[in-house]
Amino acid sequence: MANRIEVHCTVSNCHYWKQGNLCDANQILVTNDRMAAREPDSVDAPQASRLAQTTADRCEATCCKTFVHQGSEKTGVDGVYRL
Ligand code: SF4
């Protein structure tokens, strides 16, 4: 069983966000902005072990690829779910 860490997030219009600025996704994928822009929505944390490694020079060049806008029909296309 994977270790569970507490992810704090302030992006309150994300499907996985919950009160207290916490992430309620079962897993997330943090990557650099270039990969996030290149890969489709179906590529996310469940595929992470098969993805190429990336680099970033600054925190501003990284992002949460698991973000899904609240109310979006794209929820669930990547195998990520709410806990
Ligand atoms: S999926 Fe990403 S953007 Fe959404 S609440 Fe979790 S950490 Fe924040």
Please render the helix and strand layout as text:
Layout: E1 17-18, E2 22-23, E3 30-32, H1 33-38, E4 62-64
Antiparallel strand pairs: 1-2, 3-4
Describe it:
With 83 residues, the chain is mainly β. The protein has one helix and four strands. It has one helix at 33-38, and strands spanning 17-18, 22-23, 30-32, 62-64. The strands form two sheets. A two-stranded antiparallel sheet has the order 1-2. Strands 3-4 form a two-stranded antiparallel sheet. The mean pLDDT is 95. The chain binds iron/sulfur cluster. Iron/sulfur cluster binds next to loops. Iron/sulfur cluster is lined by residues 7, 9, 11, 14, 16-17, 23, 25, 28, 64, 66-67.
